[in-house]
Amino acid sequence: MYLTKDEERIYDGEYGWAKQVSIRILVKLGDLYGADRLIPIESAHISGVAYRTIGDASIEFLKELANSNAKAAVRATTNPSSIDTMNQLFSCLPRNVIEKQREIINLYETMGIEITLTCTPYYIRRPAFGSHLSWAESSAVIYANSLLNAWTNREGGPSALASALVGKTPNYGLHKPENRRASVLVKVEAPLKSEADYGVLGMYLGEVLGNRIPVISGLRRRDEMCLKQLGAAMATSGMASMFYLDENYVGERSFEEEISVDDKSLKASYERLSSTIEKPDLVLIGCPHSSPEELKIIARYLEGKRVRDDVKLWVCASKYVRRNADEYVRVIETSGGHVICDTCAVVTWLRELGVETLVSNSAKTVHYAPLLSKVGASLSSLEECVKIACGK
Ligand code: F3S
Questions:
Q1: Is 287 in the pocket of ligand 1 (CB under 6 A)?
Q2: What pLDDT does 251 receive?
Q3: Which of 13, 22, 88, 323 has the fewest Cβ atoms surrounding its Cβ within 10 A?
């Protein structure tokens, strides 16, 4: 891979150990995937923030980086952590895990990385059209590529952090126009009603597509909430990082495969995903983290109602969205729900927080909660979730 004179100096350690180790990670990746050079990025989004998922070994690595004066070279944001430090609900967790989580956050902050703690950084600042990014967090990657026309590969935590410190990423994969062509046409024949249905479609497509890029036709609803659930689910069950809506696709229309999706295929997908739960402990909305518009919709459904005493209602969102949606947050919290920031149901300790069963409108949460927390999970639309929380 070609390196400029300055990049060679970084590679040889003239700018310190942190940058050297970072550029070496990027060059290794680039060599592996046939990149010709490094290209500048507009921003990096870093996963690997939740203590529950990264553990102690990663803290040591972050400490070494921070102690060698590592500083972000471009705007960099962080994915959710394992706790909401501002919410009393989380104070029952052991003190040592709370301290470890704080330590991780402080280390990132020392490196000049923004402590956004959200998987929807695009609600805080939208990447420019056509910009190159280095984002980890699969749901944000597919959203950026498909709905914002920003260009990013699906990075892991270490490569996104390395890119943040160097300000560049290797030029391969979805950074190249020829790799952004669709190869499969998906015709959706099933009538999808809610955003939860879009999540089921996403789970199905993720499995059958692998990492191929589809053009999707036949979607009746194209609102952001539905498309966000579709993308997050596609990236959960497969390696999808991008999709096109039929009307937005301007590339060549010679597809290697056409797939029709009917009700029957989605029914099977839904049944594999969801177990029936009559009385969940937790109703979870906001995976990926909610937009202001979603908070508005939830507040509208909750207006004048009360969350049952035996159920928790969590609505996850970034601090930024929470701050800017004051009136909706008030309605949600007055009715007994909690607007949770900085974390989510997948990366926190659900069982320790008293959750054994949950219902969510997110196929991603319903997929991961049983696997990672041994919690029973079922899928329902947002509207239905609110009804369940309030006892219909
Ligand atoms: Fe975000 Fe957690 Fe879902 S990181 S996409 S809310 S699993």
A1: yes
A2: 85
A3: 88
